[in-house]
Each structure stands twice: as C-alpha cells, then as structure tokens.
Amino acid sequence: MTDVDVDTPSPLLKSLGDGRFVEFVSAENRAVMEFTAKPEFCHSGNVVQGGYVTAWIDTAMARAAILATDRALRPATLEIKVNFFRATHPGPVRVEGWVERLGKSIGFLAGRVTSFDGDVLATATSTVKLTPAPPS
C-alpha cells in the first residue's frame, strides 16, 4: 500500500535531473523516485558521470529513512558504497531506496537505479547517522 504519493519539488531534485518523488511503500520502507539523466551529465561515450548516479541513490535512500521515521529523523551519510553494473545513458531512470535496519542513532540503507526497461544500472548500501529533524 502506498502512503505518500506526492512531494514538493526542490531545487536539489531539479538540479539532479528534474527528480520526482513517486511513492513511499510503508510496508517495505521503500521510496521510489524518478530522474532524467541529461546529456550534460555525461562524459565520454555518452555515459552519465557516476556522481549523479550516486546522488540519485543517496537521495532515494534518505527519503526512505525520513519517511520510515514519520519525518522525525534525518539521515547524515557516514558511508556509501555504489556498484555500477551498466552504463547509464541519457533518459529517464527509476531509483528506489529502502531501509534495511534503523537503530536509535544509526541506520542501514540500500538502493538501486534501474532503466525503465528494468535493467539494474547500479546498487548501493549506506550507513547513516540519524539525527532529530529540525522543528517545523
């Protein structure tokens, strides 16, 4: 079941390729996002630079942690490991991030980037420090 299906676009999401929050599946603590890999993100061979791919996965994993804690905690990345399986080329990509485990102050997250054809382009794991969200 999907609990959240809209989110306010931010300048950060726009700068990362018109990022869009799609949904949060609470039963899986999984956030789904979409980005557009733009030609200006590419280096030789029309391949998206790995920093963009990493930022997409990091964004989706952070979103999953924030929503899994009902927006009470914010993750600060302590470590991130990304595996690149295939080159990412310009066009739309789907990015998922999910919570593997949340402790009192540390969380373990995972994620992946896929093409719209379902090919896995990259995966990641991350360790995060959980801090209280600022008052709204």
Can you offer a commentary on this structure?
- The N terminus is likely disordered.
- With 136 residues, the chain is of the alpha+beta class.
- The protein has a single domain, classed as Hotdog Thioesterase (Thiol Ester Dehydrase, Chain A, Roll), CATH 3.10.129.10.
- The strands form two sheets. Strands 1-2-3-7-8-9-6 form a seven-stranded antiparallel sheet, with helices on one face.
What is shown here, in short?
It is built from two helices and nine strands; from the N terminus they run βαββββαββββ. With 136 residues, the chain is an alpha+beta fold.
Name of the top-level CATH class: Alpha Beta
Distance between the termini: 27 Å
Helix content: 10-25%
Mean pLDDT: 93
Looking at CATH, which topology would you report?
A: Thiol Ester Dehydrase, Chain A
Main beta-sheet annotation: 7 strands, antiparallel
Number of helices: 2
Q: Output the helix-strand order.
A: EHEEEEHEEEE
Question: What tags apply to this protein structure?
Answer:
Thiol Ester Dehydrase, Chain A; globular; alpha+beta; 136 residues
SSE arrangement:
Blueprint: E1 2-4, H1 11-15, E2 20-25, E3 30-37, E4 42-43, E5 47-48, H2 50-68, E6 73-84, E7 91-102, E8 106-115, E9 120-132
Antiparallel strand pairs: 1-2, 2-3, 3-7, 4-5, 6-9, 7-8, 8-9
